[in-house]
Amino acid sequence: MSDLFKRMIDIQNARLHKQRELMDEYDKTVYVPAIKQLQEDCVKEHGDHEKTKHYSNGWGWEWWYCVRCGAKHSENQYNK
User: Fold this and answer.
1) In which band, very low, low, confident or very high, does the pLDDT at 76 lie, cut at 50, 70 and 90?
2) Up-side HSE of residue 41: CA atoms within 13 Å toward CB?
3) Which pTM was predicted?
4) Starting at the edge strand that comes first in sequence, how are the strands of the sheet with 72-77 ordered?
C-alpha cells in the first residue's frame, strides 16, 4: 500500500470517527427512539408491516423491509 493511499485512508477514517462521535448522543436520544416509535406506529395503525419483495444474499439469509416505515425483518437463516 502506498504512503499516499494509507494517508488518504487515515484521513477518511478520522473523519468518519469524528462524525460518529458527534452524532452518537443525537442518535441515542433522538434518532433511534423516533425510528422505533415510527415502526411501532406503523403496526398500530395498519395491523402489520407491509412487506417488500424478499431479499436473499445467497448464503442462507433472507429478509424484507416494510414499505411504510422501513423496518427490516429477517425471516430465514439457513446457515446457523
Assistant:
1) low
2) 9
3) 0.71
4) 55-56, 61-65, 72-77
Q: Which three cell numbers stand for residue 33?
A: 427512539
Q: What's the pLDDT score for residue 65?
A: 93
The phi-psi region of residue 47 (left if phi > 0; otherwise alpha if psi is between -120 and 50; otherwise beta) is left
Each residue's pLDDT tens digit, 26-54: 999 999 999 999 999 999 999 999 998 88
Domain boundaries, the chain: 3-77
- Residue count (the chain): 80
> 17: which 3 cell numbers?
470517527
CA distance 54 to 72: 11
